[in-house]
Amino acid sequence: MEIGQHYQQLMATLRMSHHSEKTGNLTKIIKSVPDSDIPGALDPRVRDTVEQHAQDLTLLLPEEGSEAAKESGEFGQPEMSAEEIAAFPIEDIRTAMVRSSLDIIRGDIRIIGETIEGRNGDIALRIYRPHTGVSLPAIVYLHSGAFIAGGLDESQHICKALAEMAHAVVIAVDYRLAPEYPFPAGLTDSLDTVQWAYSQADTIGINPEQIAVVGSSAGGNLAIGCSVLDRQQGTSFIGFQALLYPPLNPASVTAEDFQWKLNDHGTEDKRQHTHRELTVGAIQGYAFLGGKVYDLYLQQRAKKTDPLVSPLLLEDISQMPETMIVTAEFDYLNHEGEAMAAKLARAGIQTTLLHYQGVDHAFVDKLGYYPQAEDCLAEIARAIRQKWGIDRIEST
């Protein structure tokens, strides 16, 4: 892809201009809209996308929902029955959730398809490797899609970019999706892939002591679930996790540092009057759809308060790996990420909270269109390289 001069300028601004502060084990990095100095501004590139989806998301809101319910994010919709799940227009939703991205890599990444045997059947993988003969770190990548959508094709540009930026082998997992395969199918596939990567390190050409998991949205929930189970079974294969705007408290349980309120998402700022209705509708629509998604995902096989479903409710997180959590200003999940970052830091875990202003949920899926998407992947890659003291290695 040929990158325009304006895009390059925006990228340079994001790299150089940010606010950073460190308190104990928590480092907070805040990045503003690169071409606006107005607090609460919606990035103009993001606005175009939100406008395209806002009407559909708003239509998801129940007409009978009270204003108080919409402000709190608690719509109180009844749990879907088996008949309603069977009739749910899953393929239409999957199509509507696709976001276009661009291939931004400058070099050449080798792509290999692989199928491994998991505990519950075959798992399709796609492996991305820079051209080098040396052993590299591994990144197990878990795509977005609300547990019901997404796949290897949709995440290919992200994985290629991560492989190039981190100089690592990226292993993308085509984990099973709900409603066809409810909880814990996707989580099991994800953990099986981590274990396979460790056991096959020599064959793959990775360092088994340098395995990271990176998860986007629902993939972020699965990523931290893998880390929890990895520690519980005493293996500790995962040395670093990056969670991009992950759902961490679908039970909406009030916890330390967390209580969901619409006006805590930047939407109350009077300076945002030109886009408040747009962002509020999107946030409310996502919040309501989230309830339906968890009916499809769980199907009464677990409660929303299960710590593997709501990781913010975990009692002991003192053994978690070093963590980066990415949040977005206009995302209904941003406070869950902030609360988890604070909780991890209190437990003694080195944690980075990377917050992007002016963008919405799943902004990294718009790689090549939003400069914040590329900048975010570069920040994750830099953290992974720093974690293991690895400089960029030229291909051999």
Q: Structurally, how many domains make up the residues?
A: 1
The name of the CATH topology is Rossmann fold
Q: Provide the structure class.
A: alpha/beta
Q: What fraction of the residues are assigned to beta strands by DSSP?
A: 15-25%
CATH homologous superfamily (4th level) name: Alpha/Beta hydrolase fold, catalytic domain
Helical content (DSSP H or I, runs of 4+): 25-40%
How are helices and strands ordered from N to C?
A: HEEHHHHEEEHEHHEHEHEHEH
The rough form would be described as globular
The number of helical elements comes to 12
In short:
With 396 residues, the chain is an alpha/beta fold. It has twelve helices and ten strands. Helix 1 packs across helix 12, helix 6 crosses helix 12 and helix 7 crosses helix 9 (218-232).
